[in-house]
Amino acid sequence: MDKIKVGLQYWIPQHGLTRLMGKLASAKAGSLTTAVIRWFIKQYNVNMDEAKHSDPKHFKTFNEFFVRELKEGARPITEGDEIITHPADACVSQFGPIEDGQLIQAKGHNYSAQELLGGDEKLAEEFKDGSFATLYLSPRDYHRVHMPCDGTLRQMIYVPGDLFSVNPLTAENVPNLFARNERVVCIFDTEFGPMAQVLVGATIVGSIEQVWAGTITPPRGNTVYKWDYPEEGDKAVILKKGEEMGRFKLGSTVINLFAKDAIEFDASMENGQPTVMGTPYALKK
């Protein structure tokens, strides 16, 4: 059955299905929208007590519900300049060293940092022998993504690609999953070196948005796009630890890359562990 589920993803019209779901999720359908949201909350056991607006009737579209804001103080950010915090509510899929330019996708499946970063060899060199972590956001999770540390945006890269599901089953069976799916790569300069925060698209992920640029995708295309940002001035993007940096309209995956000898992951972190945005993720070395 698992092989059938994965195999079907090669045959379905991934982009067409995603466009359709994106339109439906953006539709204002009144009581029908409310009914769908109530079903989703029950189906995935979504905790609405922590949402700023807990009544499903508040949301005009499903997307508004999906990127719901939390109550003030619902995710306190762990203080301390040396502490890097989790960027999202998620589940740790894989983490560890980047060895020979390779990241672990799942048992028996690796992929390259260069491919993940849109084929940019020079950029990938900045993370040679560094560290990575992959965080999977499930449908029930809070879907805004935040900064794990203070950072100044240097570059944003849109990389077109497939839209396979990114759930654990697919990660274990589709080679180069995260390097073949559509993604938005954000490169930040921090006090401990470069950091990449990559937002990976997936089937029925209708949109990836950034707080400084709005919607990055859709529209979708076949060309890699790059935007460079200044270190200072009106067009500079400087974010503090815990600030929102992006969001998914329907869930997906966040991947972080860190430079060599820059950080040490929290000693309690392990694969399969749920994460809460703002809690300890790593320590600066």
- Quaternary arrangement of the chains shown? single chain
Sequence stretches where pLDDT stays below 50 over 5 or more residues: none
Query: Mean of residue pLDDT?
Result: 87
The total of beta strands comes to: 18
**Tally of individual domains:** 2
Question: How would you describe this protein?
Answer:
The protein is an alpha+beta fold. The protein has 2 domains: 2-66, no CATH class; 83-284. Helix content is 21%, strand content 32%. The protein contains 8 helices and 18 strands. A hairpin with a 2-residue loop joins strand 8 (183-190) and strand 9. The mean pLDDT is 87.
Protein topology:
Blueprint: H1 2-11, H2 14-26, H3 31-44, H4 62-66, E1 83-85, E2 90-97, E3 102-106, E4 109-112, H5 113-116, H6 121-125, E5 131-136, E6 144-146, E7 151-159, H7 168-171, H8 177-180, E8 183-190, E9 193-200, E10 207-210, E11 214-217, E12 225-228, E13 238-239, E14 244-249, E15 253-258, E16 263-265, E17 274-275, E18 280-284
Antiparallel strand pairs: 1-18, 2-5, 2-17, 3-4, 5-15, 6-14, 7-8, 7-12, 7-13, 8-9, 9-15, 10-11, 10-14, 16-18
Quick overview:
The chain has eight helices and 18 strands. The chain has 285 residues and is α+β, with helices and mostly antiparallel strands.
Q: Which key terms come to mind for this protein?
A:
9-stranded antiparallel beta sheet, 2 domains, phospholipid biosynthesis, globular, lipid biosynthesis, 4-stranded antiparallel beta sheet, 32% strand, alpha+beta, 285 residues
